[in-house]
Automatic annotation (TrEMBL):
<keyword id="KW-1133">Transmembrane helix</keyword>
<feature type="transmembrane region" description="Helical">
    <location>
        <begin position="68"/>
        <end position="89"/>
    </location>
</feature>
<dbReference type="InterPro" id="IPR059112">
    <property type="entry name" value="CysZ/EI24"/>
</dbReference>
<keyword id="KW-0472">Membrane</keyword>
<keyword id="KW-0812">Transmembrane</keyword>
<dbReference type="Pfam" id="PF07264">
    <property type="entry name" value="EI24"/>
</dbReference>
<protein>
    <submittedName>
        <fullName>Cysteine biosynthesis protein</fullName>
    </submittedName>
</protein>
<feature type="transmembrane region" description="Helical">
    <location>
        <begin position="20"/>
        <end position="48"/>
    </location>
</feature>
<feature type="transmembrane region" description="Helical">
    <location>
        <begin position="196"/>
        <end position="225"/>
    </location>
</feature>
<feature type="transmembrane region" description="Helical">
    <location>
        <begin position="139"/>
        <end position="167"/>
    </location>
</feature>
Length: 250
C-alpha cells in the first residue's frame, strides 16, 4: 500500500501529469470559491434575517436561544469562505476526480502496467453521476458529523474517519469501473472494505494538508489505480523504467 502511495506521489509532477494537475486545480479553485461564498452568503442571511423569521415561526419564548444562535452564525459567516473551503474540499475533490479519472488512469497504466490490458474509459455521464453522488453524500455525512467537531478531539477524529471512508470508496470505485461493471466494482470494494478504508486514510491525510490538497484528485486516482491492480490478483510484474528503456537489469 505504501509502495502504491509513493508511486502515485512520484507521478503527480511528472510531465504527462502536469497538464491534468493544473486543470484539476483550476476547476477545484473555482468550485471551492463559488460554494464557500455561497455558504458565507447563506450564513450572513440567517444572521441578518433568519433570527426574526425563526422567532416568528417558533414564538417569543425562543428569543434568547435564537439570539445566541444568531451570534454564533454571525461569527461563522465571517469565517464562511475559509471554513467552507476546508469543509467542502473532500466533496470538491470527489467531483473533480470524476472529470479527470480516465486521463489520470491512462497515464498510470501506460507508465506502470504497459503489459496489461488497458482500462475502458468511463462514459462521461456515468463518471459525473458518481462524482456528484459522492459529493452530495460527503456533504450529508459532514452535516451529520459537524456537531461533533465542536467536541474537542473526538469530533475531528470522526471527521477524519468519515473522510477516509468516503474518499476511499469514491476513488476505488472510479478506478475499478474502468475494468468492471458498476455492480462488480462496488462488490469488489465491499469484499476489500478494510484494505480500501486503510487506503482511504492515506487519501484523507493528503486532503487535510492545505494547498497540497488541491492535487488530491490526481493523487487519489493514481493511488487507487495501483490499489485496484494489487487487489485484482495475479498480474505481470511491474516493468521498471530502466527495463523499459532497454538498459539490462542486474
Amino acid at each position: 500500500m505504501l509502495d502504491a502511495a509513493v508511486k502515485a506521489l512520484s507521478q503527480i509532477l511528472s510531465p504527462p501529469m502536469r497538464s491534468i494537475l493544473w486543470r484539476s486545480i483550476g476547476v477545484a479553485l473555482v468550485l471551492i470559491t463559488v460554494l464557500a461564498i455561497g455558504l458565507q452568503r447563506l450564513l450572513s442571511w440567517f444572521a441578518t434575517y433568519g433570527e426574526v423569521w425563526l422567532e416568528g415561526l417558533l414564538g417569543p419564548g425562543w428569543h434568547s436561544a435564537l439570539e445566541v444562535l444568531s451570534w454564533i452564525v454571525s461569527i461563522a459567516a465571517g469565517l464562511g469562505v475559509v471554513f467552507g473551503g476546508i469543509l467542502l474540499m473532500p466533496a470538491i475533490t470527489s467531483l473533480v476526480a470524476s472529470l479527470f479519472v480516465d486521463d489520470v488512469a491512462d497515464h498510470v497504466e501506460r507508465e506502470h502496467y504497459p503489459a496489461e490490458r488497458p482500462g475502458v474509459a468511463l462514459p462521461f455521464t456515468m463518471a459525473i453521476h458518481e462524482g456528484v453522488k459522492t459529493a452530495l453524500l460527503t456533504i450529508l455525512v459532514y452535516l451529520i458529523v459537524l456537531p461533533f467537531v465542536f467536541l474537542a478531539g473526538a469530533g475531528f477524529l470522526i471527521f477524519f474517519l468519515a473522510t477516509a471512508w468516503l474518499l476511499g470508496r469514491e476513488y476505488f470505485e472510479l478506478a475499478a469501473m474502468r475494468f468492471r461493471s458498476p455492480e462488480e466494482a462496488k462488490a469488489m470494494r465491499r469484499d476489500n472494505a478494510a484494505t480500501i478504508f486503510a487506503a482511504g486514510l492515506i487519501i484523507a491525510a493528503f486532503v487535510s494538508i492545505p494547498i497540497v490538497n488541491l492535487a488530491t484528485p490526481i493523487f487519489g486516482m493514481a493511488f487507487m489505480v495501483h490499489m485496484h491492480k494489487r487487489l485484482s490478483g495475479p498480474r505481470p510484474e511491474l516493468i521498471e523504467p530502466r527495463r523499459r528503456s532497454g538498459v539490462p537489469v542486474g
